[in-house]
Design goal:
There is one protein chain. With about 375 residues, this protein is an alpha/beta fold. The protein has two domains: about 10-260, Aspartate Aminotransferase, domain 2 (3-Layer(aba) Sandwich); about 260-380, Aspartate Aminotransferase, domain 1 (Alpha-Beta Complex). The protein has helices at about 10-30, 35-50, 60-70, 85-95, 115-125, 155-165, 215-225, 250-260, 260-280, 305-315, 345-355, 365-380, and strands at about 55, 80, 100, 140-145, 170, 180, 185, 190-195, 210-215, 230-235, 235, 295, 300-305, 355-360. A seven-stranded mixed beta sheet has the order 1-9-8-5-4-2-3, sandwiched between helices. The radius of gyration is 21 Å and the shape is globular. Bound molecules: pyridoxal-5'-phosphate (PLP). Pyridoxal-5'-phosphate binds near residues 86 and 208.
Length: about 375
């Protein structure tokens, strides 16, 4: 039996009638961009993220950029974020005119470490006593936490730190739809959050999509305006904006999926606990949940120094796997200008060398989970 990394077709077939009906309504009305389907989806998704506003956009990358842009921080501000994330987290910072300031993650959750953030903020200050990035001298004005693999970061603690230093907290919740910490939904912490609806995400569009969620009326108004060329009224421009509008087809698909995301995540959580049972006792680190959290397992990541051999062994048996991510951002060519080097963030580097992400999707069957686990057990029994 082969096991795919994810299976989008099975999910589509379960909701085909409803999706097809929604899409044909878009075709009938010829309202292809924003419009009633996107507005209805925004309302539903604000409910999922627990915020007053949701601004649907054209991708998760656009969402990260837009939330930082709409925050209207001084140009060239330092924004603290982990290097152990998808490049779009840092791209959003740079596109908004700011400076990525990396801080390492905690070994158990692989999320931004409040201790490392505190150290950084205490480390250097300018003549006015404001925390600065020791590498570039940029005044630090924000923290961008990433809810990696579907587990919300230590957001209450980061909110407290942000408050202490007068910084804004942003959440990259692109992997964490319907996750929560201490009963608060991912997307509802800090000033604003960004979501991705890339097809492989827990809530995936049939193409590209994203959203910004926020409780701030000001940020929401600015984000809505910037998403559509800086205009509140057609052909009248308050700002230089962008075209980050969501397609109506994606709004229609996501409106259907919004009604099911909680159930689909429950099924991922059950699959994760089955993986834990099947893989216990092996020389393999399993994902840890920290605190009162709903981890929605966008990815189920295990760690072993024999990662490459294990991946090849599983591949030969038809079991797909992934690497998230093979190289942390601070050692990527694109970010070399910031002046970091290997050895700066040991936990992120360890993660990139040892992580392996296993097949995970709501419809993964007991047999498929067995096949993956059996391959891993065989691999270690031969060592
Ligand atoms: C953590 C994180 N941030 C941002 C993004 C960007 O989202 P998109 O691919 O929809 O542009 C992703 C998606 O891959 C992501 O995983």
């Amino acid at each position: 039996m082969t096991v795919p990394f994810l299976d989008l077709k099975t999910q589509y077939l379960q909701i085909k009638d409803e999706i097809d009906r929604e899409l044909s309504e878009v075709l009938d009305t010829c309202h292809y961009v924003l419009g009633p389907k996107v507005a209805a989806f925004e309302e539903k998704f604000a409910g999922i993220a627990g915020t007053r506003h949701c601004i649907a956009v054209s991708s998760g990358t656009a969402a990260v950029h837009l939330m930082l842009w709409a925050a209207d921080l001084e140009p060239g501000s330092g924004i603290i974020l982990p290097p152990n994330t998808f490049t779009a987290s840092a791209e959003g910072v740079v596109l908004a005119g700011h400076v990525p300031v990396f801080a390492d993650v905690d070994r158990d959750t692989l999320n931004l470490s409040p201790d490392r953030v505190n150290e950084l903020l205490k480390g250097s200050a300018d003549s006015k006593g404001r925390p600065v990035d020791p590498k570039t001298g940029a005044v630090i004005r924000g923290i961008l936490a990433v809810d990696l693999y579907g587990q919300p970061a230590a957001l209450p603690e980061l909110e407290r730190i942000a408050g202490e230093y007068g910084l804004l907290l942003f959440e990259d919740a692109c992997q964490a739809h319907d996750a929560s910490r201490e009963g608060r939904a991912a997307g509802s912490f800090g000033s604003a959050a960004a979501f991705s609806f890339y097809p492989g995400k827990n809530m995936g569009a049939f193409g590209e999509g994203g959203a910004v969620t926020t409780d701030s009326d000001d940020m929401a108004a600015r984000a809505r305006c910037l998403r559509d060329h800086g205009s509140r009224e057609k052909y009248y421009y308050d700002f230089i904006g962008h075209n980050y509008r969501m397609s109506a087809f994606q709004g229609a698909v996501l409106g259907v999926k919004a009604d099911r995301i909680h159930d689909w995540n429950d099924r991922r959580i059950r699959a994760a606990s089955e993986y834990r049972r099947l893989l216990s006792g092996l020389p393999l680190e399993l994902p840890e949940e920290s605190g009162d959290v709903r981890h929605v397992y966008h990815l189920f990541a295990v760690h072993t120094p024999d990662r490459d051999e294990l991946r090849a062994f599983l591949g030969e048996r038809g079991v797909a796997s992934g690497l998230h991510y093979p190289l942390p951002l601070h050692t990527q060519k694109a970010y070399a200008y910031l002046g970091y080097g290997k050895g700066d963030f040991p936990v992120s580097e360890w993660n990139s060398e040892c992580n392996l992400t296993l097949p995970m999707f709501p419809d993964i069957t007991a047999e498929q989970l067995q096949t993956v686990a059996q391959g891993i057990v065989e691999f270690f029994s031969g060592r």
